[in-house]
Amino acid sequence: MIVLTGAAGFIGFHVAKMLLSQGHHIIGIDNMNDYYDVSLKKGRLAQLAQNDQFHFYQADISDAAAITDIFKRHGNDITEIVHLAAQAGVRYSLENPMAYSASNLTGQVVMLEAARHAKQLKHFVYASSSSVYGGNTKQPFSVDDPVTNPVSLYAATKRASELLTQSYANLYDIPSTGLRFFTVYGPWGRPDMAYFSFTRDILDGNPITIFNKGEMKRDFTWIDDCVRGIIGALYKPPGGGDDKYCLHGTPHRIFNLGNNKPEKLMDFVDVIEQAVGIKANKKLMDVMAPGDVAETYADINPAVDVLGYHPKTPISEGIPQFVKWYKEYYKI
Fold first, then answer.
1. In a domain, 239, yes or no
2. Which range of residues forms the domain containing residue 180?
3. pTM of structure
4. Catalytic residue, candidates 154, 168, 309, 326
5. How far is CA 314 from CA 101, 175, 261, 297, in A?
6. Is residue 248 part of a domain?
7. What is the CATH number of the domain that holds 159?
8. Residue 269 lies in a domain
9. What digits encode the pLDDT tens for the residues 252-299?
10. How many domains, in total, are found in the chain?
11. What is the DSSP string of 122-186?
12. Any catalytic annotation for residue 154?
């Protein structure tokens, strides 16, 4: 039995679908907050609920009593945890920092405590972010690089979640894997992400705001590629001291899950325009958005080596699939 937090979220939904298709029993947890349109979350859950191997609890991961109760109900049946729930978004962290403290810090400790007391647990897999690389200028970003210069509160909390997990792996010998996601996109995605909002605004005839005059690059990762990386990690827990990727001899590893190919933001916009069939009204800003970075680029060699991770979907294929879903979902 696998506990999956953030089950109603974008990545969590797709992970749940694939795990269910493989015959796993999933205990899904999500607080269903209104950070973005809750109807999207309900739509995802409605699909998952069609499978009787999926059981859902509406609960907040920062609520220790609620999480403890869920784990007590399922006792020794829980063998893996995929912890994807978090307060996402760089810009929102400027407006509501306490949400990040509760979800990404307290929530991480609550889930680690649950992992600590799950007697049959084989692996704790959790979501981190490319944001932890912050102001680093060396490219591509490697998991061996120092990550001591976060440029947003969100980034700082995700780095803190890695350090919290390192301490628990060291103290309690919990096999753990952290995954740094690089700009994941696809159907059923998050409306606050650029590809989603750009598509919406272009179709609605509204201008799109592009920061730093578009002089940015992103390592865009197609959702199915990301999910295969997550599940590949789930099936390969760290081996401990003899595992060269384990951190400081503890059973804890961190991998980048990106596409290993940064794309120019303006090229990305061009692909969206082609898929939508409408030219965008671009509002170019001179400044960088607060907390943003100029470029992300994932070194995925360790993930290739250990997880068999091989992303294969370029934006020229992924974006048209997203736009097709968007038009169908919103009946355009």
1. yes
2. 2-185+220-260+295-313
3. 0.96
4. 154
5. 35, 33, 9, 14
6. yes
7. 3.40.50.720
8. no
9. 999 999 999 999 999 999 999 999 999 999 998 888 888 788 899 999
10. 1
11. -EEEEEEEGGGGTT--SSSB-TTS-----SSHHHHHHHHHHHHHHHHHHHH---EEEEEE--EE-
12. yes
